[in-house]
Amino acid sequence: MSTPRTIRLSPEDNVVVAVDQIPVDAVAAGVTARERVPRGHKMAIAAIGESQPVRKYGQTIGFASKPIAPGDWVHEQNVALRDFARDYRFAEGAKNDEVLPPELRATFEGYLRPNGKTGTRNYIGILTSVNCSASVAKFIAEEVNRSGILDDHPEIDGAVAFVHGSGCGMAAYGEGWELLRRTQWGYATHPNLGAALMVGLGCEVFQIDRMKEEYGMVEGDHFQTMTIQATGGTKKTVQQGVERIKAMLPVAARAKRETRPASEIVLALQCGGSDGYSGITANPSLGSAVDMLVKHGGTAVLAETPEIYGAEHLLTRRAVNRAVGEKLVERIRWWEDYTKRNSGEMNNNPAPGNKAGGLTTILEKSLGAAAKGGTTTLRAVYEYAEPVKEKGFVFMDTPGYDPVGATGQVAGGCNVMCFTTGRGSAFGCKPTPSIKLATNTEMYRRMTDDMDINCGDVLDGTSIETKGQEIFEKVLRVASGSHTKSEDLGYGELEFVPWQIGAVM
Length: 505
Known about the structure:
The chain has 505 residues and is an alpha/beta fold. The protein has 14 helices and 23 strands.
């Protein structure tokens, strides 16, 4: 019988990760297994006394809840999470990242918008101010798509209704209002939309006119609004909505792809359905691609604050200055309070699927998730759905729930997304194309219709740098119009989920 393969990620680690399942009594990493260790899970290679740290990636991922012997399966039954001090070392690792001169940067074929931003897709968006107008928005999109009026406009990717469950029964001021306003404005002005129509009911708390006034938005060939009550009901609003879009179509269709620098790419970094391989294969490979993008002048946006919890000290050390690092820590503290107020805890994550895949604590998950951000300097920390203006590697405060987190990133201006998964997430993200990166070959083969790139071959010897280059080149092709698997499957409309943070009244 061949020796099961394992990975020791750091000389400081007292566990190894099982690449292959380790049977009882099998010898792996020079240790005899005392129990079966599933693929992607951890086996102790040294004695770990009760309350002593369990180490992976050279970092603490938890503490032994009872004595652990060499060869033991290390998981929930013998690992607990507790608070411990992290050394933030603000800005100690900040550096001047290499950025290529413009003439040496990679390019893609994108849509240059009047505001100077570049889109990777050219959708017509139908937005809603409130759930009460959601059905009408869907009716308008369905009528536009099935009527054939887009047949003469091949440059338009389709009409999409972005509907949500809020907009009323909420406070007219405060966090909830601000988050929804930023999200709606970010989508209405997104470079992947050639035109946008916003539909309201008329009497809701989230008033369209107020948002327009606060942002200085002017209606024109690319943006228009209407309400069901003022227009005369459902049928009239649908009819007029279709007519409004017909009038905007020629303008939106004028957009043609042209050669644009990779510095115009704003890449959203997401992960969902993580497993024990995520931090070994897909996430560091994506991190390598991020380093390449930053070198070419582009921007990458890491998010999902609960899923960097316990790894934030690795990011604060890379902060461009102390203020940026402290802003990240402040968001961590906000989340600790937020979960406490809602009778939760930060270790509610990992999910059952994460645990089945080998992840034991949020610290372990976070250390792997943070690898998506590569190695360059952290330039800025943004709140949910804030416009991303800084070039390079940045962070956005979002929930770990993928559709909510992705919605914030898209609202911030992300025009391409990379999404790593180990369990096999079903996800897409209109208007921003989502590239799915599989952490292991078994899942990639099982769900090949959903996955764009297999990163499982890293376990077989493919280098992180080689895989990073593959991802970077894929990002450029997708930004130029190549379809992702999720686009071919039709995903992306139901994944618009703004963060409902305020009280529902």
